[in-house]
Design brief:
six-stranded mixed β-sheet; alpha/beta; binds zinc ion; globular; 9 helices; 23% helix; binds guanosine-5'-triphosphate; 13 strands; binds magnesium ion; 331 residues
């Protein structure tokens, strides 16, 4: 296990701006009246921000220092916020985030890469074929989602090429919602799950994230990759994350947001602790309270209370195995 014992406070250490060498000015301008927008995408240091339905291009004000500004962030913005061609506004503050989805390049990488802010649903997009599903990757993204407190949804694409049953059977015991899609599929169920929420789509390159976004949002016009006939891999097409508005299903309903992201090759978890993963499963956590001190709860852990609960029939084998696979994904 290489899950590090980092707690929530340690996360902040990486984002903290460098200590100022010049004394801070006492009379900082008052930004409480600045307009508030949401970051839609980031392109070469420019932030595309949505303010009251206008798309405004902005840069980061110098006083923000190394504070990260990422897709989904709510920001305070001043200057020319007309959104007219050539106009440039300034982001002066980032509002507190409700969630942050993070990854590290690999499990030894101390630098977290925040991907998306304020998402409340994590859509793990996995193809059933071309490229074939890899449970290790699904498990890792699930762990990152639980760590961030974002509800997961497993979306299995290319159901026209292979059956979703085997993958479904691995994750439904954990209480994870699974939806299968194909080009001909009726997307009503998926639309209902996405309605009114901020959903970030994550998965390998070529699994069909952008294809799905295009099917859900007419006019999204996301570029689609071509699967290499020899390797079965998709060409990397989406190059930066982008938030797109999902029209409400009825005029009274809240719009949702779908955030398409570039394909990830790996999903490092050096920022996630074992304790935080277990605490995402309340019933399992309460069972582990009677484990021997320092129990890792892995398959080989002696006298783990999860095995006793399995023997007593209080826990299904499928659920325990799924959970242990996730624990292992931090190795
Ligand atoms: N047969 C089949 N092909 C699909 C399906 N969904 C997507 N594809 C194809 O898979 C390829 C890759 O799709 P993309 O939508 O570009 O994949 P992506 O996940 O956005 O890839 P990146 O942007 O590189 O991360 C394209 O050739 C799509 O036409 C599906 O449900 N069935
Ligand atoms: Mg894409
Ligand atoms: Zn245990």
């Amino acid at each position: 296990m290489t899950f590090r014992g980092l707690n929530a406070d340690d996360h902040e250490a990486y984002d903290r701006p460098r200590r100022h060498t010049k004394p801070r000015t006492k009379d900082r301008p008052d930004y409480t009246k600045a307009e508030i927008g949401m970051i839609i995408t980031v392109d070469r240091g420019r932030f595309r921000t949505l303010i009251d339905g206008r798309e405004v291009t902005a840069t980061k004000a110098r006083q923000l220092g190394r504070t990260g500004v990422i897709v989904g962030d709510r920001v305070r913005i001043v200057g020319d916020t007309s959104g007219e061609e050539g106009s440039l506004a300034r982001i002066v503050a980032v509002e507190a985030r409700t969630t942050v989805l993070r990854r590290t390049a690999d499990d030894d990488d101390p630098y977290e890469r925040p991907i998306v802010a304020n998402a409340d649903q994590l859509v793990i997009v996995t193809a059933l074929a071309d490229p074939p599903p890899r449970t290790g990757m699904i498990d890792r993204i699930l762990v990152a989602g639980f760590d961030a407190g974002i509800e997961p949804l497993l979306c299995l694409t290319k159901a026209d090429l292979a059956s979703p049953d085997a993958v479904r059977a691995l994750y439904e015991p954990l209480g994870i919602r699974v939806e299968a899609t194909s080009p001909a599929a009726d997307l009503t169920a998926l639309r209902n799950i996405l309605a009114g929420r901020r959903s970030v789509f994550i998965g390998h390159s070529g699994v069909g994230k952008s294809t799905l976004v295009n099917a859900l949002i007419p006019g999204a016009l996301r570029a689609i990759g071509h699967v290499n006939e020899v390797t079965g891999r998709g060409r990397h097409t989406s190059s930066s994350a982008i938030a797109l508005e999902l029209a409400p299903q009825t005029p009274e309903a809240q719009p949702g947001w779908v955030i398409d992201t570039p394909g990830v090759r790996s999903f490092g978890l050096s920022h996630v602790s074992r304790e935080r993963l277990i605490s995402a499963f309340e019933d399992l956590e309460s069972i582990t309270l009677t484990c021997p001190r320092g129990c890792t709860h892995e398959t080989s852990a002696p006298e783990c209370a999860l095995d006793a609960a399995l023997d007593r029939g209080e826990l299904s084998r499928a659920r325990l195995e799924s959970f242990r696979r996730m624990l292992d994904s931090g190795q």
